[in-house]
């Protein structure tokens, strides 16, 4: 078996100036840089696999969704490592920055989540303190109005009722989960306002 030798075709010759223009348009990427990019895609894929509730929001390709589902079902560490390589290859065609931003937004360790938690805690404490003091009914109403005007997605009646139930539980020294419901309601209102 012999290799075919190609004859030089003078008609297809590209002059030196045109060749320089073509080489300027092509961006050269080192092998190390390509590996770093692939490892970054794999790490992002691993984080994404841990957040299945986020998948519908990102409109991921079906093949990537299937790969992420399969990753969570694989028990072997070595098989997971190989499957992450496959996930990394599938993630080449998606918007890396958009997925990373969505994950950071949802990541419980992110600054956004911490700030959201602290803000909701502050509002809950302010409302519960005002609600426990019967002489400060006007203060409680003012705080509710202030919160709702700053976070218009929150339903006023639901907030008032949940606050009344939480204050009543605290006064009767019982735990029915109303303070937690109040926190969740405040947190959801703050989150909706920050996302829009």
Give the tags.
mainly alpha; 71% helix; Diphtheria Toxin Repressor, domain 2; 0% strand; single chain; 196 residues
Would you write up a description of this structure?
- The protein has 196 residues and is mostly helical.
- The protein folds into 2 domains: 31-106, Diphtheria Toxin Repressor, domain 2, CATH 1.10.60; 111-195, Diphtheria Toxin Repressor, domain 2, CATH 1.10.60.
- Helices cover 71% and strands 0% of the residues.
- It is built from 10 helices and no strands.
- It has helices at residues 16-25, 31-49, 55-58, 62-73, 77-90, 96-106, 111-132, 137-150, 156-171, 178-195.
- The radius of gyration is 28 Å and the shape is elongated.
- Mean pLDDT is 81; it is low at 8-12.
- Residues 1-11 have a biased composition (Basic and acidic residues).
- Keywords: Cytoplasm, Ribosome biogenesis, RNA-binding, rRNA-binding.
- Residues 1-30 are annotated as: Disordered.
SSE inventory with pairings:
Blueprint: H1 16-25, H2 31-49, H3 55-58, H4 62-73, H5 77-90, H6 96-106, H7 111-132, H8 137-150, H9 156-171, H10 178-195
Helix pairs in contact: 2-4, 2-5, 2-6, 4-5, 7-8, 7-9, 7-10, 9-10
Biased composition (Basic and acidic residues): 1-11
Keywords: Cytoplasm, Ribosome biogenesis, RNA-binding, rRNA-binding
Region (Disordered): 1-30
Number of strands: 0
Order of helices and strands: HHHHHHHHHH
Distance between the termini: 67 Å
How many domains, as an integer? 2
Report the principal-axis shape: elongated
Helical stretch tally: 10
Strand portion: under 5%
C-alpha Rg (nearest Å): 28 Å
Q: The biggest beta sheet, please?
A: none
| Low-pLDDT residue spans | 8-12
CATH architecture of the largest domain: Orthogonal Bundle
What structural category arises from helix and sheet content?
mainly alpha
User: What is the arithmetic mean of pLDDT?
Assistant: 81
Could you please say which CATH topology of the largest domain applies here?
Answer: Diphtheria Toxin Repressor, domain 2
Helix fraction?
over 70%
The CATH class label of the largest domain is Mainly Alpha
């Amino acid at each position: 078996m012999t290799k075919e030798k190609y004859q030089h075709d003078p008609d297809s010759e590209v002059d030196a100036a045109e060749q320089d223009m073509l080489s300027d348009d092509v961006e050269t990427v080192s092998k190390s840089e390509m590996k770093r990019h692939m490892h970054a895609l794999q790490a992002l894929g691993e984080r994404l696999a841990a957040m299945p509730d986020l998948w519908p929001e990102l409109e991921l390709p079906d093949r990537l969704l299937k790969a992420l589902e399969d990753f969570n079902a694989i028990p072997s560490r070595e098989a997971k490592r190989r499957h992450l390589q496959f996930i990394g290859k599938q993630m080449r065609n998606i918007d890396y920055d958009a997925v990373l931003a969505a994950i950071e937004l949802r990541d419980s360790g992110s600054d956004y989540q911490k700030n959201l938690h602290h803000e909701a805690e502050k509002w809950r404490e302010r409302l519960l303190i005002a609600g426990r003091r019967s002489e400060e009914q006007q203060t409680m109403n003012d705080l509710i109005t202030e919160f709702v005007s700053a976070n218009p997605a929150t339903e006023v009646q639901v907030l008032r009722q949940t606050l009344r139930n939480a204050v009543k539980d605290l006064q009767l020294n019982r735990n029915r989960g109303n303070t937690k419901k109040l926190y969740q309601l405040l947190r959801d209102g703050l989150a909706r306002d920050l996302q829009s």
